[in-house]
Specification:
The protein is 41% helix and 20% strand. The chain contains 19 helices and 15 strands.
Length: 517
């Protein structure tokens, strides 16, 4: 997308950076939380998704609060009051030519939005408050916890050290953790971060809640890691006519977790209409693969093996009827039309990783994804979480994968449950293995035969196995009985001294030619 123009509004002696996106019929001012950076927001897929959704039905006005991002810093020895900071909203609206707007206050932005609504009711169309509060020490941090947080910020700011305090479920997401570290550095310096924390600690607007007259929607995650959900329950009691919606999740930032669900609530509240459903979405199985070095290889050897595996990954994904959907940090994401293909590809990738000399761990989940662009949303997040949860050599899948793959010949065993941020109940997991009846229970261990040992028919069969086809499909294509195909597969495994059907697929990918693909 084209770069968004950044402009500056003057609020007293301070310059406030702002952007305007979208051409909706009404203005929506997004008042951000603790830290922000207008330019960096567009580099995170969740943040970008949120802003695109909001700007699809409004003229969205974004800004960095004073002391953060692209705006001027504040004097650490002369902290501005909340009233002064709130007036930055008015200055940005004036600069953007907005006479009246709805306000979306997120986290620390919620008190500013509420104070603005109480001070300028004629300029406030509505209030949407996400993860907000009226008193910092009561619902966010005690003085003791605040001091510990400030000490950590002053010594470890810019390393991503605050991530567990805001989005604990994303700590193991290496790509997001790296972005979060940049987000810290480019949103505020260590001194500025400590100053912002002290400014927020002064927030107490409980006395003004009863005079807010704008229609108000409150959204809060039930297990919010940063702001106690009781904070929004209190607001719902004190703001006349306010409606509270509690949603699953523990990650605090509004742009994490189920972004579409939050955007749907805001859109329906502000427009009176439910969000129009996405037409370019399909049901797909996502497979997320990661590899890691267990032999403590040197950097050069690890780089070579990693590159070799990525090349094999692309080849095998295509062989099994899937598509490489891109890299997400160390994770390789692929999508398939059906879960059986995804699991068979995962088994082939596991064998390929062993051959190359690296360890693999994989997660698979099925759900709706967008036809265009890289997979985002809950389906992708769940699959990535499963891959992070999987151990060496594991293929972990959601129970839904096993249910949809019934009759495919694949074998699944119970793998317990895992808590997923956006789901009400723990997700039931299974271990996925290859087709058990195709793997000989015992076989001699002589020196493996050369590829030339395969007959022409066996070469055809192994090529179709590598294409991800089931025995029934192979039988139909070659006009054989399914029993004959099973016998051919068993003979192939014996001749090549391979442990499984997946290993045969990996072998075929590594040996193109008369006996390969």
């Amino acid at each position: 997308m084209r770069p968004i123009e950044t402009r500056y509004a003057r609020s007293g002696d301070v310059r406030i950076a702002y952007q305007v996106v979208g051409q909706g019929s009404f203005d929506l001012v997004f008042v951000p939380g603790f830290i922000s950076n207008l330019d960096l927001h567009w580099e995170d897929e969740g943040y970008t998704r949120l802003l695109k959704r909001l700007s699809a039905f409004s003229r969205l006005i974004l800004f960095d609060k004073r002391g953060t991002g692209l705006s001027d810093r504040v004097d650490a020895h002369n902290l501005p009051s909340l009233e002064t900071r709130m007036d930055d909203v008015r200055a940005v609206m004036d600069a953007a030519g907005s006479g009246r707007a709805a306000l979306l206050g997120s986290s620390e932005g919620a008190p500013m939005a509420m104070l603005f609504a109480a001070t300028y009711p004629e300029r406030t169309r509505a209030l949407a408050l996400y993860g907000g509060y009226a008193h910092f020490h009561k619902w966010v941090m005690s003085p003791e916890r605040l001091n510990a947080f400030i000490e950590m910020a002053e010594t470890a700011w810019g390393t991503g050290a605050t991530l567990p305090h805001f989005a604990p479920s994303r700590v193991d997401d290496a790509h997001f953790a790296q972005w979060w570290a940049r987000f810290e550095r480019l949103s505020a310096s260590p001194t500025a971060a400590a100053t912002l924390a002290r400014m927020n600690a002064d927030v107490d607007i409980r006395h003004i809640l009863s005079v807010i007259s704008a229609p108000t929607l409150l959204i809060h995650r039930r297990n919010d890691a940063r702001v106690d959900p009781d904070a929004s329950r209190f607001l719902a009691q004190k703001i006349p006519g306010a409606r509270l919606v509690e949603i699953p999740g523990r990650d605090h930032p509004i742009w994490t977790g189920d972004v579409d669900g939050v955007a749907d609530l805001i859109e329906e509240f502000l427009t009176g209409e439910r969000a129009v459903g996405e037409v370019d979405r399909v049901l797909a199985a996502l497979l997320v693969t990661r590899i890691y070095d267990t032999a403590r290889l040197g950097d050069r050897m690890w780089s070579e093996r990693s590159q070799r595996f990525q090349e094999t990954w692309r080849l095998l994904v295509g062989r099994h009827g899937g598509r490489s959907a891109g890299l997400h940090g160390e994770l390789m994401i692929s999508r398939f039309d059906g879960p059986a293909r995804a699991i068979r590809c995962a088994a082939a990738l596991r064998e390929a990783a062993q051959e190359i000399g690296v360890a693999s761990a994989q997660g698979a989940h099925v759900g709706e994804i967008e036809v265009r662009g890289p997979p985002v949303g809950m389906t992708a997040r769940v699959a990535m979480q499963l891959a992070s949860h999987a151990g060496r050599g594991d293929i972990i899948a959601s129970r839904l994968i096993a249910d949809l793959a019934a009759g495919s010949g694949l074998h699944f065993t119970d793998a317990g449950r895992i808590s997923v941020d956006e789901l009400e109940e723990p997700l039931v997991l299974v271990h996925a293995t290859s087709e058990q009846h195709l793997e000989p229970a015992c076989r001699p261990k002589p020196k493996a035969a050369e590829p030339a040992a395969l007959t022409a028919r066996e070469s055809e069969v192994v090529s179709l196995v590598a294409d991800g086809k089931s025995n029934a499909a192979i039988a139909a294509e070659l006009r054989l009985s399914e029993h004959t195909v099973k016998r051919h597969v068993a003979n192939i495994l014996l001749k090549l001294d391979l442990p499984s059907r997946a290993a045969a697929a990996a072998f075929s990918a590594r040996h193109p030619g008369p006996h390969g693909p």
